[in-house]
Every structure is written in C-alpha cells, then in structure tokens.
Amino acid sequence: RLVHTAIRALIYEVNETKPHLVLLACRDDWDPACGCQPHPEDLDTDPWFARREVPCAIDYLPGTRCRLNNGYHIISVPPTSRPHSPNQTLRNLFSVEWAGTIVVVKRGRRHRAHAVHITPPEVSLINAVVERFVHGELLPRDAPLTMCRWIQSAC
Length: 155
Fold this sequence. Notes:
This protein is an alpha+beta fold. Helices cover 17% and strands 25% of the residues. It is built from 4 helices and 6 strands. A hairpin with a 6-residue loop joins strand 3 (54-60) and strand 4 (67-76). The longest helix has 12 residues, at 123-134.
C-alpha cells in the first residue's frame, strides 16, 4: 500500500497575489512505516508558522448547514501572535485585512483524520471556504459556540 510522505496543500502567502498549491512534507517524527496516511498535524508547516500554528477543522461550508464531502484544516496563527504584515493574497481575492499566512489541508472522505491531496479543480471551492472563514462565518447554524473560538475574537 502506497503511503504518501508529502501532501499537496493550498497556501495563501503574505507576499503573493493568489493562492498556490505546495507539497507539504511530513514532519521528521512521523513514521510512514505505520502504514496509514499522515494526519494534517503530521505535515511540516514550520517554514510559515514555526510550530505556533492553530488548525481549525472545517466540515461545513462556513455559515451554513452544508456539509462538505471532504473536511479541511485551515491553519494560521492565533490573532494574538499574528505578524503585522497583511496577507496580500486575501486582500486581493476577498478584500479583507488578515495578517499572516493561511495553509489549507484537505482531509479524507472516509478517513476524515487523514490528509489527502488537493487537486487544481478544488481550488474554487476552497477559496469559497477560506473567504467565509476569514470573514468570520465559521459556525454551522445551530452548532455549539466552542468550535474555533479563537478566531471569533479576531473578526
């Protein structure tokens, strides 16, 4: 069985004008001999976050009850430790002020804890998810208010 040691993710970098796909390698402490796909937290995001990142699991189109076939992890830094440089990608795409980089990792359909590759046709859907995320439309209607609480205070 093939176990990937790098997963294609979508990144919204601070000094870029549009998001792009990147290969995220697995962290050194992840063992591919376990025989299962890596989880989003097994991927190396240190070049952007230096282990200060906070993943937010998204299973619904933010602000709706529409469940996504695949969930996503949206990874950024908490508002209290965000750098001061604004994210040009998010400003360009969504006209929103956001400091810091965002990385999106897709999760498996059957095994929702596993990270899987993002394909180019999915970028439009992910853009819609990220736009609602950065505008603060996080919770599915009737969802408990404990989900992603740290981002609510930033919006």
